[in-house]
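From the methods appendix. Each design record in this collection lists the tokenized structure first, followed by the designed amino acid sequence. Records were kept in a plain field format so they could be parsed without special tools. The example shown here is representative of the layout used throughout.

RECORD:
FOLD TOKENS (473 positions):
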């Protein structure tokens, strides 16, 4: 390392966020940018720790100490090259990753980890600005054709590496624009869609073919697509949302979170007029059911749509402020997370179960809830209702942010008759090969709903295995 004592001389300094009163009036990115000099000083805090637990914690095996050292020395171009050696899209993970690496950083023992995520995005943004990142099409083509179905982070990563290997790759997307949940799931205030377009333009200039508005299994036969290609990679994500089948679920005003988020992203992109968006929280009492990141995204979007109030409830207990004894470093810290959306105005409630929806004239007017108590016995958790805690939360706009259960089976998967596991995800072997020859699968369609960085890692592995298959190895 260039400065092995940097962590003793420089304190952790984050770029910070735009002021709340300013950012809630638009959908521009919340996070600010630290100047280059301070960013290089932050990189100097990466200590010569012997065992880089940050690398161990990173799903894409980022060479974090290496590119931090190069950043500290001011060699932004070399840092960018080391960053791209393991990650196709550092501009995505640098914005939306929960920074598992920072939780595993040795300096996090003292609650002062290196600003790894911010360093990552700073490197790639500097590289784009300085023109270090240029199209690099393969020098020769293999003559092999590959179809990648689904253009989310897993599909994009697989398509990118397969194209770089010289295969002719076509990326299929059922929606009107590519990007999957990066485009239609993550709000613009966390990830500007111009960032996606910039990377896609680079991939297309390198020879990748992208076909949008093509729903494989409906607009084109899945069997036909398989017959036309030497290999197929399915990366359709985990598209079936978890429902809440309680009394009153049929009432108007109850929506899935992704439908709500996607509608606003389409408005922001000009794909839909604001007046055409029926999923608008303006002037409404919003209740978000589900305490994860998607629920947080619903909170921030509702605030920007000028909701009258926003409440978020979670059936699990409130996380602790500090690590519990059973959750030691260097594992990811399961502690209370307050997102930028929560800072913008939201009432949060934990250990609350939804008993039923209440309505009037066919529209939801409230949610009947009950406190629950969690107990642990022999390593298993159980939940029991707390007598006398029933209460009604008034609402006229409910968003179900309960995650996803498995990929959509109708159409593509049914036509291909692929084997599924006990969770109804696509069943694959260690090489990510499915039960049908020359068909592979990656991302959430295999693992279930997960992080963007995990999807990229899965897509990269699928690309390596498909390349080996096509080369007869």
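DESIGN:
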């Amino acid at each position: 390392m260039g400065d092995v004592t940097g962590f003793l001389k420089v304190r952790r300094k984050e770029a910070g966020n735009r002021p709340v009163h300013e950012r809630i009036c638009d959908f521009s990115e919340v996070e600010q940018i630290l100047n280059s000099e301070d960013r290089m000083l932050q990189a100097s805090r990466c200590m010569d720790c012997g065992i880089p637990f940050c690398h161990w914690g990173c799903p894409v095996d980022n060479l974090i100490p290496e590119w931090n050292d190069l950043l500290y020395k001011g060699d932004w171009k070399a840092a960018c090259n080391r960053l791209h050696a393991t990650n196709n899209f550092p501009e995505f993970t640098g914005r939306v990753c929960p920074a598992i690496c920072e939780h595993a950083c040795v300096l996090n023992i003292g609650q002062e980890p290196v600003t790894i995520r911010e360093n990552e995005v700073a490197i790639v943004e500097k590289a784009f600005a300085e023109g270090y990142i240029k199209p690099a099409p393969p020098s020769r083509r293999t003559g092999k054709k590959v179809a990648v179905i689904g253009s989310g982070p897993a599909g994009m990563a697989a398509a990118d590496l397969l194209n770089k290997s010289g295969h002719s790759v076509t990326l299929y997307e059922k929606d009107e624009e590519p990007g999957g949940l990066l485009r239609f799931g993550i709000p613009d205030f966390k990830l500007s869609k111009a960032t996606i377009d910039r990377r896609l333009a680079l991939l297309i200039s390198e020879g990748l073919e992208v076909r949008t508005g093509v729903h494989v299994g409906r607009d084109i036969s899945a069997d036909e697509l398989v017959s036309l290609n030497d290999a197929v990679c399915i990366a359709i994500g985990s598209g079936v949302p978890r429902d809440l089948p309680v009394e009153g679920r049929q009432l108007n005003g109850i929506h899935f979170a992704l439908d709500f988020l996607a509608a606003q992203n389409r408005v922001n992109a000009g794909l839909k007029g604001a007046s055409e968006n029926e999923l608008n929280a303006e002037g409404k009492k919003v209740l978000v059911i589900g305490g994860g990141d998607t629920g947080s995204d619903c909170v921030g979007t509702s605030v920007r749509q000028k909701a009258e109030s926003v409440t978020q409830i979670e059936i699990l207990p409130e996380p602790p402020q500090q690590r519990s004894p059973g959750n030691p470093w260097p594992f990811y810290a399961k502690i209370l997370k307050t997102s930028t959306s929560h800072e913008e105005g939201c009432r949060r409630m934990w250990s609350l179960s939804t008993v039923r929806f209440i309505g009037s004239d066919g529209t939801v007017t409230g949610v009947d809830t009950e406190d629950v108590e969690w107990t642990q016995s022999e390593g298993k958790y159980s939940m029991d209702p707390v007598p006398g805690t029933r209460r009604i939360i008034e609402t006229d706009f409910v968003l179900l942010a309960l995650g996803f259960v498995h990929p959509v089976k109708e159409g593509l998967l049914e036509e291909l008759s692929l084997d599924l596991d006990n969770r109804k995800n696509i069943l694959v072997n260690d090489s990510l090969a499915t039960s049908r020859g020359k068909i592979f699968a990656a991302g959430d369609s295999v693992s279930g709903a997960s992080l963007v960085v995990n999807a990229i890692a899965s897509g990269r592995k699928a690309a390596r295995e498909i390349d080996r298959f096509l080369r007869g190895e």
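APPENDIX NOTE: Residues 452-470 form the longest helix (19 residues).
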